[in-house]
Amino acid sequence: MVIRRTSLVTALMLAMFLAAVEGTIVTLATPSIVKDLQGFELISLVFSVYLLTSAVSTPIYGKLADLYGRKNVLSIGIFIFLAGSFLCGLAQSMLMLIVFRAVQGLGAGSIYTVSFTVIGDVFSLEERSKIQGGLSMVWGVAALVGPFLGGFLIDVLSWHWIFFINIPFGLLAVILLQRALKETFEKKERRVDYAGAVTLSLAMVVFLSIFLFNQNQDSNRALFLAGSSVTTIILLLAFYRIERKAQEPMMPSAIFTKTSVIVNLMSFMVYAVLMGVNVYLPIYLQNILEYRPTAAGLAMLPLSLSWLIVSFILGKFLIKYGGKAVTLVFNTILLISALLLSTLGVDSPILWVLIYGFIIGIAFGGVVTALTVIIQDSVEYNNRGAAMAANALLRTLGQTIGISVFGNIFNLYITKYFVQQGIEGVNPSNLYQSAAVHPALTAEQIRLSLNSSIHVIFIAFIILSCLAIALSIAMPKMIRDGGE
């Protein structure tokens, strides 16, 4: 495999930036999109279908990368993402936008999985931690740059341009990737496991729909949950039978070592916490401490900074102490940071938030990067794409399920707070509008209710961190310096 390293890393960072910045820009553009397309009741689907198709396509891209090479599969994924972006920019209705966002998600599924697979193929262990740290940092940069870029495009041009702007960056990423990475692999007849791909995709669609599309608390919810759960189990059993007989299974049994299973479960826990921190720490800063969105975004900067610093020095620790010791230490730091978050209140100084965010960044920078390296080293080259895809799928499930559970907890405890105060009928989804209906509902009570509810979320972070520590203890000692 011959590479031009600088161009390759630039291509991967550009591709990662496309996927990372999309979320922040689209979120910012939501009010403009709703006003123009007149479909407020459908706006949640704009985000849900993107996440769903991204999760479903992840294992497929991983296997295709093993069969046909990383470069072409990643390039195809980027082209699909760009096609979806272009079509989103042309959307004339909410239904069109939702369909085209699904196309965008299908392309995004390749970016994370195949990008990190390429890094596992090309770079040594110490180099990998630095480069993966840089790629992870892209998400932090996107969180800061996205609102400013999106605001500028919407104010000067229109919301359509938040999608069109992806195209030149995506094309540049593909050009650099094609020129920088030269792959050589054995040419032979390859059979794609279509039955396995379809069955697994259907299972994920049904399973994730539980968390993405049915938030109503009506009498049909129990029936929906039962039906979806049974259907998911049946589809997964069918997938298992198909994989046992497939010549080129979507998820080969070789990728399910004791190490990879523990790492995938740990990734589920850690990414649930990461998603929770990314969503609820800004809510704490804006709605409880009452900082403006820009200031709240800057307050998240220490988290991104410490994440990057740790990623750059982590390789030496992995080589010296091994993956088990490193994940145990950084999961312990994650637990400490969750405990610190639980001490925050309505009058906590912003300095505390900055310090706690810096500590959280240390924890995530260590454990996320270490888990990625361990997965890359847990299998051989011809199964690395599938192994990374399985890990990416578990991370996505952790984020999706985590944010759904956290959201239910958040709403439940807001309602519980007001019931304890003797105020009935408050709708957590329209908390500030409820103040007009309930004269007794003051701004200070809203702050206290949010603080009470977020405190419970922080306790959930503590529980998940403890589970991650337990998994770290159970992990076998195994780390080797890879790179091919």
| Shape label | globular
CATH topology of the largest domain: Growth Hormone, Chain: A
The gyration radius over C-alpha positions equals: 22 Å
Integer average pLDDT:
77
Count of domain modules: 3
Overall number of strands: 2
Instruction: Give start-end ranges of low-pLDDT stretches.
Output: 479-484
In a nutshell, what does this entry contain?
The protein has helices at 5-37, 43-68, 70-90, 94-122, 125-156, 161-164, 166-180, 194-212, 221-245, 258-288, 293-299, 301-321, 323-341, 350-377, 381-420, 431-437, 443-474; strands at 2-3, 181-182. It is an all-alpha fold and 484 residues long.
Written overview of the protein:
α14 (350-377) packs antiparallel against α15. The protein is built from 17 helices and 2 strands. The protein folds into 3 domains: 1-188, MFS general substrate transporter like domains (Growth Hormone, Chain: A, Up-down Bundle), CATH 1.20.1250; 194-246; 253-479, Growth Hormone, Chain: A (Up-down Bundle), CATH 1.20.1250.20. The protein has helices spanning 5-37, 43-68, 70-90, 94-122, 125-156, 161-164, 166-180, 194-212, 221-245, 258-288, 293-299, 301-321, 323-341, 350-377, 381-420, 431-437, 443-474, and strands at residues 2-3, 181-182. By secondary structure, the protein is mainly α. It has a two-stranded antiparallel sheet.
List keywords for this structure.
two-stranded antiparallel sheet, mainly alpha, 484 residues, Growth Hormone, Chain: A, disordered C terminus
